[in-house]
């Protein structure tokens, strides 16, 4: 097999190929943005849920837990936690009851001293995430 | 060292190694917390330690990239750096900002840190890897832009080689995609969708351009193979990387509320992602086999070859293992992901930085290569760290497989923590492998201080 | 002077990658670089086709039922258009190799016209489907139908961009009997786009 193999051709293919696939990615992303309203339950997002997401972020929950499988793998999945624990009340009670000094020898969740409103917001946020159509993930209730 | 201004790379490399040590120490803390749950609690909870571990990694890799660019660009452009002073000023700004951020993580509760740093004005914190307070994020943008200005001006006034262009493109892409870290919509699905535009399009996109350019540069130097040959292979490899990697982003869009066609698009294109890594391994070995000179710096050659192999294993093989949607349905968000993440980051980005440092540091210290004795130390550290990382990956993979089985596949799935307790043995073994990694890192640092007969530059 | 400056001088002696030698029998037309790209593209499509076959095996009835709604005529017409376009590009390359560059440019333009007609037909086909509220998320068959044909559609667009560049450069006299590496490379890419359609059309439109 003889034949040319030129740098200029390789370069042109790099620029052309990259542009091509990036445009294709943009096209798919565009379609995704159009489809999302059917899956992400945005119509149900309330100010409380937004505030709950803020609590979720400012306590760095994702530093231990996963949410729809993304995050750290130190603590249980939370996208379905309301379902797993049975109710928002159970979730709130769990968060509230964390001992300040942890549980001896066990992985311990910090006591965040959330107010009742903050707890409500966070629970509402987690409940909302539970309703998102995420292609039937996780496989079972254990997350 | 051919140009005086290349010397600014030195503090960058030193800082990179310093932060690397910090990253590993916190990694050991995390590993211990996996088995002794309340270790250091409540002083340093897991999420804080993890933030420090991952953020230190990102920052030291960036230090490495910037140092590499400051070293490589003048030599490629055949001209002095546009402004060495700016480069040095940016070094201190970035280092102080990075250090303050870490201190902030460790001393102030995260929620308070968020409040103090204006997160209520523009909420960007508390998302994985993007935990940095707003001022730090803005600082990263400013430093990145000033840095890009500096090296772009250097290239513009000098020779424009393919390596320099690919590196510039990668670094510009890095800065541009980081801007998505400022976008944090209330809709969690949209949030996650664009979060990956930073994370995936960095590590499986533009960072690979940086990696390719750095590797190509070192290979030209240590093998003496003609630039024409190496540069066209560089183009072929980065093309393959991007045509698979960009749509490959789809493998993150399986289970986060995004449309289900991503399961097909993501699986198909990310199944092809090992190809560029394989090509890179073949390329590195090929170039070394065709070498036209015996470079005295054997350690740098070893690191370069190691980068090819380990990036292929970590990013290519371990990525492929769980990238197909039907498999990922069960493995998503388990220790399998952790296993892949560790080996991929080490094999690709840690090792390419160490390759560059290994090649450039002796020259920056005024010699062609370190003494044989020092190189022996460095090669020992290569093997210690690399083998330790292989074992970390294997133990995490074993833990992950068991976790998937216990928690997701078996007829009576057990709760998360019940499963975790059952795989604790593997976490202990991972921790010991981590200790071995730290020993390797200590040997690496020692290698910089080993004297012996050195070849003059 | 550090030793690595010598490597620059050492490596000046390069094997020249000059114009390929036509006499050497089994010569690969065009640039090796384009063949890497073509192989990568073929591989991507091959995996996509396999995924289609795999998904279809799991739900033959739904696939067959949805397949009936596809417009076979426009698909067949497009097949003819692309094959004709490929033939024109072959003629173009042959003409340029005889230094008949003006003729070559005309054949290239004819090839582009076929490509353009393909795109027009495809747009009509798409608009009919979109009017019927069919999207990527309708069902797995339509997901594959739209994904594969759109992925291919974009390849036709890219192929046309390449042909347009080649056309301009041919007109400028950049290619001839001595230098036609880029022309052959672009033509090879265009043939690949054609080849892909020849697999795609029966697979998605016809085979039951």
* Rounded mean pLDDT score of chain B: 97
Shape of chain B: globular
Tell me the name of the CATH homologous superfamily of the domain at 71-208 in chain C: Cytochrome c oxidase, subunit III, four-helix bundle
- The residue ranges of chain C in which pLDDT falls below 50 over 5 or more consecutive positions are 1-24
What's the multimeric state? heterotrimer
Strand ordering within the main sheet of chain B: 1-2
What is the chain-wise order of helices and strands of chain C? HHHHHHH
Amino- and carboxy-terminal Cα gap of chain B: 8 Å
Helix coverage percent of chain C:
over 70%
**Which class do the helix and strand fractions of chain C yield?**
mainly alpha
Order of helices and strands of chain B: HHHHHHHHHHHHHEHHHE
Question: Which radius of gyration of chain C do the C-alpha atoms yield?
Answer: 21 Å
Q: How many helix segments of chain C?
A: 7
Name the chain pair with the biggest interface and residue counts per chain.
A-B, 75 and 77 residues
CATH topology heading of the domain at 1-160 in chain B:
Four Helix Bundle (Hemerythrin (Met), subunit A)
Concise summary:
By secondary structure, chain A is mainly alpha-helical.
Plain-language structure description:
The complex is a heterotrimer of chains A (143), B (457) and C (208). By secondary structure, chain A is an all-alpha fold. Chain A folds into two domains: 1-38; 42-143, Cytochrome c-like domain (Cytochrome Bc1 Complex, Chain D, domain 2). Chain A is built from five helices and two strands; from the N terminus they run ααββααα. Chain A has a two-stranded antiparallel ribbon with strand order 1-2. In chain A, a hairpin with a 2-residue loop joins strand 1 (66-67) and strand 2. In chain A, helix 2 (47-58) packs across helix 5. The N and C termini of chain A lie far apart (54 Å). The relative contact order of chain A is 0.15. The model of chain A has no long low-confidence stretch (mean pLDDT 96). Chain B is mainly alpha-helical and 457 residues long. Chain B has a domain at 1-160: Four Helix Bundle (Hemerythrin (Met), subunit A), CATH 1.20.120. Chain B contains 16 helices and two strands. Chain B has helices at residues 9-35, 46-77, 84-107, 110-116, 134-157, 162-178, 188-223, 227-248, 261-271, 274-289, 298-321, 325-331, 335-364, 372-409, 416-422, 424-447; strands at 367-369, 455-456. Chain B has a two-stranded antiparallel sheet with strand order 1-2. The longest helix of chain B is centred in the last third of the chain and has 38 residues, at 372-409. Chain B is globular, with a radius of gyration of 22 Å. Chain B starts with 8 loop residues before the first helix and ends with a strand. Chain C is mainly alpha-helical. Chain C has a domain at 71-208: Up-down Bundle (Four Helix Bundle (Hemerythrin (Met), subunit A)). Chain C contains seven helices and no strands. Chain C has helices at 4-10, 32-58, 60-67, 72-97, 101-131, 140-171, 181-206. The termini of chain C are far apart. Chains A and B meet through helix 1, helix 2, strand 1 and strand 2 of A and helix 2, helix 4, helix 7, helix 8 and helix 9 of B.
């Amino acid at each position: 097999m003889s034949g040319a193999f030129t740098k200029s051709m390789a370069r042109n293919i790099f620029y052309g190929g990259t542009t091509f696939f990036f445009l294709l990615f943009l096209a798919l992303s565009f379609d995704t943005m159009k489809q999302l309203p059917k899956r992400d339950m945005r119509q149900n997002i309330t100010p409380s849920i937004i505030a709950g997401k803020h609590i979720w972020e400012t306590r760095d929950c994702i530093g231990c837990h996963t949410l729809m499988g993304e995050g750290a793998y130190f603590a249980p999945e939370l996208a379905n936690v309301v379902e797993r624990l049975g109710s928002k009340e159970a979730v709130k009670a769990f968060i509230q009851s964390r001992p300040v000094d942890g549980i001896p020898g066990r992985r311990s969740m910090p006591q965040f001293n959330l107010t009742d409103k903050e707890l409500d917001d966070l629970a509402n946020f987690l409940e909302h995430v539970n309703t998102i159509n995420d292609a039937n993930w996780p496989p079972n209730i254990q997350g | 060292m051919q140009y005086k201004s290349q010397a600014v790379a030195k503090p960058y490399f030193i800082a990179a190694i310093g932060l690397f040590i910090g990253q590993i120490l916190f990694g050991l803390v995390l590993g211990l917390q996996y088995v002794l749950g309340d270790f250091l609690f409540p002083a340093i909870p897991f999420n804080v330690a993890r933030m420090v571990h991952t953020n230190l990694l990102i920052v030291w890799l960036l230090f490495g990239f910037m140092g590499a660019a400051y070293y490589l660009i003048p030599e490629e452009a055949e001209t002095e750096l546009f402004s060495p002073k700016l480069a040095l000023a940016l070094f201190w700004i970035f280092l102080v900002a990075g250090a303050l951020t870490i201190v902030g993580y460790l001393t102030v509760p995260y929620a308070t840190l968020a409040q103090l740093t204006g997160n209520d004005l523009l909420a960007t914190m508390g998302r994985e890897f993007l935990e940095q307070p707003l001022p730090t994020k803005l600082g990263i943008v400013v430093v990145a832009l000033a840095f890009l200005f500096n090296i772009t001006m250097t290239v513009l006034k000098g020779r424009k080689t393919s390596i320099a262009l690919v590196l510039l493109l990668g670094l510009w892409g890095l800065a541009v995609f980081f801007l998505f870290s400022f976008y944090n919509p209330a809709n969690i699905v949209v949030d996650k969708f664009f979060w990956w535009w930073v994370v995936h399009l960095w590590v499986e996109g533009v960072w690979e351009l940086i990696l390719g350019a750095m590797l190509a540069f070192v290979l030209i130097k240590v093998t003496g193979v003609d630039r024409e040959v190496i540069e066209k292979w560089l183009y072929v490899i980065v093309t393959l990387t991007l045509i698979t990697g960009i749509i490959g982003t789809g493998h993150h869009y399986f289970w986060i509320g995004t449309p289900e066609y991503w399961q097909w698009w993501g699986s198909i294109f990310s199944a092809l992602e090992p190809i560029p890594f394989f090509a890179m391994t073949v390329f590195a070995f090929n170039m070394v086999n065709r070498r036209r000179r015996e470079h005295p710096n054997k350690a740098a050659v070893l690191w370069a070859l190691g980068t090819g192999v380990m990036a292929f294993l970590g990013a290519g093989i371990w990525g492929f293992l769980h990238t197909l949607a039907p498999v990922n349905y069960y493995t998503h968000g388990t220790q399998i992901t952790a296993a892949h993440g560790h080996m991929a980051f080490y094999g690709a980005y840690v090792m390419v930085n160490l390759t560059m440092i290994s090649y450039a540091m002796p020259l920056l210290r005024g010699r062609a290569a370190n003494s044989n004795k020092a190189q022996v130390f460095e090669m020992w550290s290569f093997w210690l760290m690399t083998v330790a990382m292989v074992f970390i990956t294997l133990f995490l993979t074993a833990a992950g497989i068991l976790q998937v089985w216990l928690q997701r596949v078996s007829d009576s799935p057990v709760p998360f923590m019940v499963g975790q307790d059952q795989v604790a043995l593997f976490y202990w073994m991972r921790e010991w492998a981590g200790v071995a990694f730290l020993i390797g890192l200590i040997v690496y640092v020692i290698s910089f201080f080993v004297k012996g007969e050195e070849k003059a530059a | 002077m550090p030793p690595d400056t010598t490597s620059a001088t050492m490596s000046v002696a390069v094997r020249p990658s000059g114009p390929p030698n036509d006499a050497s029998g089994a010569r690969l037309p065009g640039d090796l670089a384009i063949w890497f790209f073509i192989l990568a593209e073929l591989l991507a499509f091959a995996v996509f086709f396999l995924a289609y076959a795999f998904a279809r095996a799991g739900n033959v009835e739904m696939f067959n039922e949805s397949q009936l709604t596809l417009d076979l005529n426009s698909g067949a017409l497009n097949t003819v258009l692309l094959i004709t376009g490929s033939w024109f590009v072959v003629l173009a390359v042959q003409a340029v190799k005889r230094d008949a560059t003006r003729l070559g440019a005309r054949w290239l333009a004819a090839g582009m016209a076929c490509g353009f007609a393909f795109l027009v037909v495809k747009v009509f086909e798409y608009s009919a489907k979109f009017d019927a509220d069919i999207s990527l998320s309708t069902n797995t068959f339509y997901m594959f139908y739209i994904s594969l044909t759109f992925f291919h559609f974009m390849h036709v667009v890219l192929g046309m961009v390449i042909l347009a560049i080649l056309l301009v450069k041919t007109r400028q006299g950049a290619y001839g009997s001595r230098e036609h590496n880029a022309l052959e490379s672009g033509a090879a890419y265009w043939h690949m786009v054609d080849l892909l359609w020849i697999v795609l059309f029966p697979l998605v439109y016809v085979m039951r």
